[in-house]
Amino acid sequence: MVDPRRRRSLVTDERRSDDDAELAAALRELAVPELSAELRQRLAAIPSHGAVRRFPAHSLRISALGWAAAAALGLFIGTQSIEEADSGDVATSGDGSSGANVDSATEDESVALAVGSFAEFEEEP
Amino acid sequence: MTHPQPISDDDVDLVLRVAEGDARAYHELCSRHAARLRAFVMRLVRNDADADDVVQETFLRLWTRAGDYERRARVVTWLCQIAHNLAIDRLRARNRLAPLPDDEAMPISARQPRLIDEKRRAEALERAIAALPERQAAAVELVHRQGLTGAEASEVLGVGSEALESLLSRARRTLKAELAAWSTRGVEGHS
């Protein structure tokens, strides 16, 4: 003899398990949508295109080499400029007079500017 | 992407090969898991373009970070976890993800036109799943369609076992009600 409440519970459980089984079966039967051709191509391209991202050190190395070359070029140009400036000083100071005149004229103009006197810059008629 | 013979039956072996740069192993994993993975992602993002992007990003991670794979989880679980995280990021960016406690489903019958053709039961069920809140649909997809265990699905979704069971039971209740309603309509339609 089964208690009526127990029987009701059994019936409910049976129905629930039947429903669950039916639902599970229905869910299993659902088809998995196929991938689009475009997505298949995108996925297939990853090994070839992803290889660049796979080794980021490679791109960093290229970047570092570029900066190193730019720095070397900058140093070379800078050194050349200094050498040219040095040789220019030597050339002007060779005869003695012209370099000294230019220097003194520039110095006078600087002093005039500093004291606010612009008579130095006025051209005589 | 398809190859005449699988190069290995073991997903773990394939992932280890991918970590060494084996493109064939990568393609094999794609052919095995991409479609199901996309179906899972689609349950979350519900947008073809976003689903494709997430799947592509997941497989890009497989290709670039296969070395991060840990054997404690199945490969399918690991891939689902990556895809889930990417999908959640995308949903958060769109501000679309419903908070966990408030994602009760609306009555689907109210949103869905009546289907009286018995042959279209699968379609009705598909629509019913699509109408579930994202997390419930994802839980159903993982457990009932991808064959993940409860523990694996919990890990993928980043929820505890009780939360997963709650998601599943709410989803099942809704889907069963929908199936029952569909059966009733079907009988009425045939009588």
Write the layout of secondary structure elements.
The complex is a heterodimer of chains A (125) and B (191).
Chain A: H1 4-29, H2 37-54, H3 56-95, H4 97-115
Chain B: H1 11-19, H2 23-45, H3 48-65, H4 75-94, H5 108-111, H6 121-131, H7 134-145, H8 150-157, H9 161-190
List keywords for this structure.
heterodimer; A: 125 residues; mainly alpha; 4 helices; 82% helix; 0% strand; elongated; B: 191 residues; Rna Polymerase Sigma Factor, Chain: A; Arc Repressor Mutant, subunit A; 2 domains
Describe the structure.
The complex is a heterodimer of chains A (125) and B (191). With 125 residues, chain A is an all-alpha fold. Helix content of chain A is 82%, strand content 0%. In chain A, α3 (56-95) crosses α4. Chain A is elongated. Mean pLDDT of chain A is 69; it is low at 7-13, 51-56 and 96-100. Chain B starts with 10 loop residues before the first helix and ends with a helix. Chain B contains nine helices and no strands. Chain B is elongated. Chain B folds into two domains: 7-97, RNA polymerase sigma factor, region 2, helix turn helix motif (Rna Polymerase Sigma Factor, Chain: A); 100-191, Orthogonal Bundle (Arc Repressor Mutant, subunit A). Helix content of chain B is 71%, strand content 0%. In chain B, α2 runs antiparallel to α3 (48-65), α6 packs antiparallel against α9 (161-190) and α7 (134-145) packs across α9 (161-190). The model of chain B is unreliable at 100-107 and 110-116 (pLDDT under 50). Chain B is mainly α and 191 residues long.
